[in-house]
Amino acid sequence: MIAFLIVIGVLAALALATLLVLRYYPAFGGRPGEAARARMRSSPHYEDGKFVNLVPTTMNMSLRENLAIMRDFMRGRPGGKPDQPLATELLSPLSLKRDGADSPQAKVTWFGHSALLLELNGRRLLLDPMLGRTPSPFPGIGGKRYSDRLPIEIEDLPAIDAVLLSHDHYDHLDYGSIKRLKEKVGRFFVPLGVGAHLERWGVDPGKIEEHDWWDEVVWEGFTLACTPARHFSGRGLTDRNATLWCSWVVDGGGAKVFFSGDSGYGPHFRQIGDKYGPFDLTLMECGQYDKRWAAIHMLPEETVQAHLDVGGKVMIPIHWAAFTLALHDWRDPVERAAKAARERRTSIATPRIGQTILIGGASYPSAAWWR
């Protein structure tokens, strides 16, 4: 009897500790206030306390499949990550200050995974700036970034006019990155519900704008549109789909860019293309996929089709080359996307991490640097 009571006490203590960590550890984010919840409830994409996709989207895998996935992740696999840390091209703070906000030339710099710096129309925009070491609420736990260093440290970045976030998963919205960035950023554009995380982390609520799918905002000479994606959200054990996920249209006057966020393939790409296309450049999710969860992460061939659906001229595959979050070879996403692009006769750019390229330039990088 005493042993039974001890076991019950230990389990209760563990349950209480888990609840306290989820409630008070800041990396898990915040909860929307009443005004934000009212806006969420009024969304046509909100049902029974959760956001929903435009088309049915499920990941109903059997217990056997889930156990097999856990086993495979624990074992690892050859080619799951680079043998050596990936080299990055370094960005000079001086060059950014000299050529950034004062330059009329549209540029993009990839930081790995889905983090990018856009320089358009005399403004600097950061997209999904996860610049931490691990996509985890606990920095010491989780697979580390493939590269030893970023193209530029957060502290060396010049002022950022706006940050655009696609959703609240750890590989896109990072507590440590936001804490270090927040004083540099003039505006945060986020999908519904995500603002609560930023507020908890000390971002001035006056800097945050939350948007639903198909919302448009005119800002500093830009037209920004919060557009659909086929995915999900959540940072804890009980908040799945409690906040919205999205893609973004960025029309900077001289150049038009589409940022997919995370998404499975679906009819929304054609809808976005019909309304906002064509695009000078698409930044398309390509990586961390598996046939078992293809509803929420595109296979590379679908990535190329989505690029064509939105009316893209040139595509940069993103969401790869930083972390191992799936079971494929780390090079497979870009290899398969490049092959599909050749077969579909569309243009693909493959910049190195940290390499700045001109949008609408005469040529784009195409070297297979990952081999």
Automatic annotation (TrEMBL):
InterPro entries attached here? Metallo-B-lactamas, NAPE-PLD, RibonucZ/Hydroxyglut_hydro
Question: Upper lineage ranks?
Answer: Bacteria, Bacillati, Bacillota, Bacilli, Bacillales
Name the reaction it catalyses.
3',5'-cyclic UMP + H2O = UMP + H(+); 3',5'-cyclic CMP + H2O = CMP + H(+)
Flavoprotein among keywords:
no
Q: Please state every residue range assigned to the domain named Metallo-beta-lactamase.
A: 123-320
Q: What is this protein called?
A: MBL fold metallo-hydrolase
Q: Which domain of life is it from?
A: Bacteria
Query: Which residue ranges does UniProt annotate as crossing the membrane?
Result: none
Q: Which GO terms describe its molecular function?
A: N-acylphosphatidylethanolamine-specific phospholipase D activity; zinc ion binding
- Pfam families from the entry? Lactamase_B_2
Stated role: Counteracts the endogenous Pycsar antiviral defense system. Phosphodiesterase that enables metal-dependent hydrolysis of host cyclic nucleotide Pycsar defense signals such as cCMP and cUMP.
Which Gene3D superfamilies does the record match to this protein? Ribonuclease Z/Hydroxyacylglutathione hydrolase-like
GO cellular-component terms in the record? cytoplasm
Which keywords label this protein?
Hydrolase
Instruction: Give the PANTHER family listed for this entry.
Output: N-ACYL-PHOSPHATIDYLETHANOLAMINE-HYDROLYZING PHOSPHOLIPASE D (PTHR15032:SF4)
